[in-house]
Design brief:
2 helices; mainly alpha
């Protein structure tokens, strides 16, 4: 999820498409939250690791 967000950020920045840039930011933030929850041991969506 984090990698997808970074790719979207790069594409949005290069192509100057604001919606892709925004989606990239959202994907990075959600990926970081899910990663943090997984690292501290909380189950996410019924799974110990979201990936």
């Amino acid at each position: 999820m984090i990698v997808l967000g970074i790719v979207l950020l790069i594409i949005g920045f290069v192509a100057k498409i604001a919606i892709v840039w925004t989606l990239g930011i959202i994907a990075v933030v959600i990926g970081a939250i899910l990663a943090l929850l997984g690292f501290v041991g909380h189950e996410v969506g019924g799974r110990r690791h979201y990936y």
